[in-house]
């Protein structure tokens, strides 16, 4: 039984909201647990633990971005097949990219586990903070292959329009993690390592549910073959690697920011760790939009519906902008509540207040950039997205952050990063409209040539 390409008709805004909110509910649940980790750890009244999470999270952010890059390849190709009514090809591709993801993520896990102390020390972790961060990272990194595969299963469900069940997978992981966190941290007394163990177990359980939906309930996986895998691997590499480079560009920038913040002491790193866990919760819908619109873009691009592609871009940016404005207002008004919840003091409280009051509103431009990246990746211009994001990390982050650090210390780092984001959002938007114009022009030219050939044949 073939699943219809449901995004080729109907209200675009409704599709964007529906796909984004179901994706966001799951993301919020997961990120709320990450935020709860920081909260529970803060109750131990030891900034060493909070700082350790900050260092480890910088590397975990980098690793998770690799998994996201692979899901982009899944969404881009699978949704295009669906738009072209090639459902078996989509099912075959899902099985092969899942196999590729397994092999690739196991390799990355081994490398990170082995080099964890050295990588953390490069970021500035020392003494007891380095020890705690290493132990935490080495436990939670074991869940990377499981997490990467769960992300693939969820992306596959969204491609076929089953966003609700993709949400259930992430919700289950969050619920299990939330229940196990206080048990392992306080009752068993494992402190920071307890939080890592809870996350590992939760991801294993959620993976089981994702496999049930994809493989058994909807039968979205075709049996893999060696020849098919080798053929699809070429497609995966062409699409996934530029997407991975695009995704890891942001964590690389985050690694550099962490490195600069570390120069100003443990208190600022603790504050940066709290901000790092607050951002995904507060702006979950923003991050969800970029992933959720991928099947909508892919199906309409596969059907050569360029008018709807432009509407998807416009509606997504409008929706993103409104959402970020509302969230930044709430953060500004609730900054003291956040400071008190996490027992933040001195420099830790200072940097949290600066983020809530001044920096959060600039996430409008982060959202615009994410939408443009989603379009570039799903329209076959992943290399452009890579170059754009690498430019943002280098020219849009390093000089702005470095100058901010020199003249305004740790707060200047946040201001510098925000300014770079604004500049590159404008660049991304101009590039996106140029690409859409170019694709539409080329398609019209191809149609004219095709009609001319038919006329000469007749």
From TrEMBL:
InterPro entries: MATE_fam, MdtK-like, Membrane_Transporter-Flippase. The chain crosses the membrane at residues 12-33, 53-73, 93-116, 136-155, 167-189, 195-215, 235-257, 269-298, 319-339, 351-376, 388-408, 414-436. It is found in: Cell inner membrane. Keywords: Cell membrane, Membrane, Transmembrane, Transmembrane helix, Transport. Pfam families: MatE. PANTHER family: MULTIDRUG RESISTANCE PROTEIN NORM-RELATED, MULTIDRUG RESISTANCE PROTEIN YPNP-RELATED. This is MATE family efflux transporter. It comes from Psychromonas marina.
């Amino acid at each position: 039984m073939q699943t219809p390409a449901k995004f080729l008709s109907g209200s675009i805004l409704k599709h964007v909201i529906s796909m984004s909110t179901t994706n966001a509910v799951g993301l919020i649940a997961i990120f709320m647990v990450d935020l709860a980790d920081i909260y529970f750890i803060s109750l131990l009244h030891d900034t060493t633990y909070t700082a350790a999470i900050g260092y480890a999270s910088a590397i975990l952010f980098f690793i998770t971005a690799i998994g996201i890059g692979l899901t982009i390849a899944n969404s881009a190709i699978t949704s295009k097949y669906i738009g072209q009514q090639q459902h078996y090809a989509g099912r075959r591709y899902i099985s092969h990219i899942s196999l590729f993801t397994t092999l690739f993520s196991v390799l990355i896990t081994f490398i990170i586990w082995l080099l964890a102390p050295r990588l953390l020390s490069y970021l500035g972790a020392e003494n007891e903070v380095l020890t705690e961060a290493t132990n935490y990272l080495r436990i939670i990194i074991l869940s990377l292959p499981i997490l990467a595969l769960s992300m693939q299963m969820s992306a596959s469900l969204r491609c076929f329009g089953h966003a609700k069940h993709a949400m259930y997978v992430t919700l289950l992981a969050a619920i299990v993690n939330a229940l196990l966190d206080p048990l392992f941290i306080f009752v068993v007394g494992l402190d920071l390592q307890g939080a890592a163990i809870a996350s590992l177990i939760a991801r294993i359980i959620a993976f089981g549910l994702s496999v049930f939906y994809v493989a058994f309930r909807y039968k979205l996986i075709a049996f893999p073959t060696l020849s098919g895998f080798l053929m699809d691997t070429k497609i995966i590499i062409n699409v996934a690697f530029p997407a991975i480079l695009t995704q890891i560009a942001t964590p690389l920038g985050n690694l550099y920011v962490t490195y600069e913040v570390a120069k100003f002491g443990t208190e600022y790193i603790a504050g940066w760790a709290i901000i790092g866990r607050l951002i995904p919760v507060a702006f979950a819908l923003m991050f969800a939009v970029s992933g959720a619109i991928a099947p909508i873009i892919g199906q309409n691009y596969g059907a050569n519906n360029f008018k709807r592609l432009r509407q998807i871009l416009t509606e997504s940016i409008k929706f993103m902008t409104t959402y970020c404005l509302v969230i930044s207002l709430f953060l500004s008004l609730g900054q003291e509540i956040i400071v008190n919840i996490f027992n933040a003091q001195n420099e830790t409280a200072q940097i949290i207040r600066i983020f809530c009051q001044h920096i959060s509103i600039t996430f409008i431009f982060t959202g615009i950039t994410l939408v443009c990246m989603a379009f570039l990746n799903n329209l076959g211009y992943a290399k452009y997205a890579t170059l754009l994001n690498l430019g943002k990390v280098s020219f849009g982050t390093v000089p702005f952050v470095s100058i901010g650090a020199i003249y305004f210390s740790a707060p200047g780092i946040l201001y510098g990063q925000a300014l770079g984001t604004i500049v590159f959002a404008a660049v991304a938007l101009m590039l996106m409209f140029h690409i859409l114009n170019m694709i539409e022009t080329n398609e019209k030219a191809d149609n004219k040539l095709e009609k001319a050939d038919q006329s000469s044949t007749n």
